[in-house]
């Protein structure tokens, strides 16, 4: 075991901002990408729905 | 499963034509968007689950099990996200160029859609490689950024991704956008070996490859942590690309019967 305590682990040998900043930014980027993808999915669904409505209107 | 049944009629119709053209090759049927769409949908939860599990193991190995580095202390732990992100940024670009090239040569629409789906995730991992690199450079080199070969060519990779995306967004006709994007992606692919070999070709501040023909330049537990984290981000990247691909397929194919049928069935 490399860490004596929880605080020791969080301090990352004095490099906490760099190490946690790196792991944090990866997590944040994945979160943002998933959010954008959820919105994109909604937009794609709307586009298909509009197309269906347009075709119904033609009939 | 019920929402898939609506697609079987139109899918089997295309299956027939594709099989005819492909000389009876069964796997070719997945080249048709309507066959690939439900397949991708089924794969996504498994890929995300695998990413989560692998990340848990990788983070344990990298942050808990691995000892600090003799020279860099705990700052080196950035390697467990930096190297996987940098590898993915290059692998995704090569995959994007190949799919774009296949779409350009064979005029297969799913290949071009795949290239478009890969670009944003590739750009994201390029930003992450640069960002985590800056956070690693500051404590070890004393600088967030230096204009050396490795860093500059990776920055160029980001501009290639952004250029590809901007070019595709600027053209209204999706087939023209596919072709223009493919040319850009294929020209830009020469940058990938430049990034990879830059640490050998030029004098650089960036450290050498972690993995090479001579083996790994680190302790086994560090190497395992790095490889498991790579697999985790790889699984996530494939899932995200498939999620985006499904959006692109729906939008581009919304005029086809199978998409409308799929939509109606899925809402039932």
Structure commentary:
Chain A is mainly α. Chain A has two helices and no strands. Chain A is rod-shaped and about 75 Å long. The termini of chain A are far apart. The model of chain A has no long low-confidence stretch (mean pLDDT 92). Chain B is an all-alpha fold and 268 residues long. The interface between A and B is large, with 32 and 43 residues.
List descriptors:
heterodimer, A: 59 residues, mainly alpha, rod-shaped, B: 268 residues, two-stranded antiparallel sheet, 1% strand, disordered N terminus
Question: Any low-confidence stretches of chain A, pLDDT <50, length ≥5?
Answer: none
Describe the global form of chain A. rod-shaped
The chain pair with the largest interface is: A-B, 32 and 43 residues
In this structure, how is the largest beta sheet of chain A organized? none
Oligomeric state of the chains? heterodimer
Helix content of chain A: over 70%
According to DSSP, the number of beta strands of chain A is 0
Fraction of helical residues of chain B: over 70%
Number of strands of chain B: 2
> Helical element count of chain A?
2
Low-pLDDT parts of chain B are 1-24
């Amino acid at each position: 075991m490399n860490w004596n305590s929880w605080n020791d682990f969080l301090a990352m040998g004095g490099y906490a901002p760099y190490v946690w900043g790196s792991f944090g930014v990866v997590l944040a980027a994945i979160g943002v990408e998933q959010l954008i993808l959820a919105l994109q999915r909604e937009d794609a669904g709307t586009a298909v729905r509009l197309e269906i409505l347009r075709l119904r209107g033609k009939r | 499963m019920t929402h898939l049944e609506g697609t079987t009629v139109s899918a089997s119709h295309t299956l027939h034509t594709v099989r005819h053209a492909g000389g009876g090759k069964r796997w070719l049927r997945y080249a048709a968007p309507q066959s690939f769409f439900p397949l991708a949908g089924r794969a996504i939860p498994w890929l995300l689950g695998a990413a989560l599990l692998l990340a848990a193991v990788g983070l344990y190995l990298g942050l808990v099990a691995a000892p600090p580095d003799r020279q860099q202390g705990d700052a080196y732990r950035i390697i467990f996200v930096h190297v996987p992100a940098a590898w993915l940024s290059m692998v995704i670009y090569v995959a994007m160029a190949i799919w774009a090239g296949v779409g350009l040569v064979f005029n297969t629409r799913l290949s071009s859609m795949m290239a478009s789906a890969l670009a944003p995730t590739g750009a994201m991992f390029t930003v992450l490689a640069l960002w985590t690199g800056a956070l690693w450079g500051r404590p070890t080199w004393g600088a967030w950024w230096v204009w050396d070969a490795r860093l500059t060519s990776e920055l160029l990779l980001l501009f290639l991704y952004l250029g590809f995306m901007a070019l595709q967004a600027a053209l209204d006709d999706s087939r023209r956008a596919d072709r223009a994007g493919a040319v850009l992606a294929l020209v830009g692919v020469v940058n990938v070996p430049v990034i990879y070999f830059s640490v050998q070709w030029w004098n650089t501040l960036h450290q050498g490859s972690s993995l090479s023909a001579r083996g790994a330049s680190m302790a086994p537990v560090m190497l395992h942590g790095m490889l498991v984290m790579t697999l985790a981000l790889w699984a996530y990247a494939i899932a995200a690309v498939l999620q985006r691909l499904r959006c692109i397929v729906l939008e581009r194919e919304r005029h086809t019967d199978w998409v409308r049928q799929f939509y109606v069935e899925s809402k039932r």
